[in-house]
Amino acid sequence: MSSNNIKLLAFDLDGTLLDSVPDLAAALDLAMKAMERPGVSEAQVREWVGNGADILSARALSQSIEIDTSLTEESKREARVHFDRFYAECGHSKSTLYPKVKESLIALQQAGYQLAIITNKPYQFVPEILEQHGIAHLFVDVLGGDSLVKKKPDPMPLTHLMSTQQVSHSEMIMIGDSKNDILAAKNAGVMSVALPYGYNHGEPIELANPDHLIQDLSQLPELLTHY
């Protein structure tokens, strides 16, 4: 076991461990074209991602981070079905781990920490992506955006993980790149660590007031020595 009080490290996926926007954008663009709607760009998707596939699809229909209130539930459902199909078909071939992610995760696991994933991405896509990048075996648990009734920024995924892994609030840290991650940590009463390079709707992550900010995951072991 790790030498300090922290036992469990929960990581967001998209924008934290993985740059997934190229594949997300390609799938969304195909979904919009299938519905004869305007296509979307990578730059747009970088600002829209982070709240789960339903909201991402609705933002693509709206061509805005603000969802058009005149959209029908039927059109939103149709967009999500198209997105899921094209995202599954893409093979996630354009997604890449951020620098220093894999070696940092391995080092943290070898140091005795339990690692987990809490993402708002639909669970069906997550295991394959983790396997593809050779990191699936590092995690004791993986929660997707639809694994539970509620997703980040609600604290439910974090409190569920604390319960299943039998750790207390003071023994867990949430590591992410967006205000959803930081808010989820605050709502669950656990420490938050933010990374500045991911997707946060175009806002600096500092505005979400994380407990700590690191530049990349290689700085996490040093930070953990203080707890």
What features would you highlight for this structure?
227 residues; alpha/beta; Rossmann fold; DNA polymerase, domain 1; 2 domains; six-stranded parallel sheet; 9 helices; 8 strands; 13% strand; globular
Give the helix/strand layout.
Blueprint: E1 8-11, E2 18-19, H1 21-34, H2 42-48, H3 53-62, H4 73-89, E3 96-97, H5 101-110, E4 114-118, H6 126-132, E5 139-143, H7 156-165, E6 172-176, H8 179-188, E7 191-194, E8 212-213, H9 220-224
Parallel strand pairs: 1-4, 1-6, 4-5, 6-7, 7-8
Antiparallel strand pairs: 2-3
Helix pairs in contact: 1-2, 1-4, 3-4
Main beta sheet strand tally, sense and closure: 6 strands, parallel
Q: Element order, helices and strands? A: EEHHHHEHEHEHEHEEH
So what's the oligomer here? single chain
Structurally, the number of domains stands at 2
Instruction: Write down the Rg.
Output: 17 Å
Share of residues in strands: 5-15%
Tally of strands: 8
Overall residue-averaged pLDDT value: 96
Low-pLDDT windows of residues: none
Can you count the helices? 9
Which architecture of the largest domain per CATH? 3-Layer(aba) Sandwich
- From the helix content, strand content and strand pairing, which structural class follows? alpha/beta
Per the CATH scheme, the topology name of the largest domain is: Rossmann fold
